[in-house]
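Here is one chain, start to finish.
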Amino acid sequence: MNFLRTKTEPDRVLDTVGDSLAALRGGVDRSKLLKAGLIAGAVAAATAGSAAISSIRRRTEGNSS
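Its structure:
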């Protein structure tokens, strides 16, 4: 039995993100938050794409030796 209702990791992350956004909302308008989110998403996508390309190159180089 779990008497202490501790939060799971995803619940804690969501609470932290929600608290951070609530703190930002006072000083930043919605369009700036949207723009920052789009930029962060683009950077994450570029990083993932670069990692995928590097992985493919390593695999092809390993097969050709």
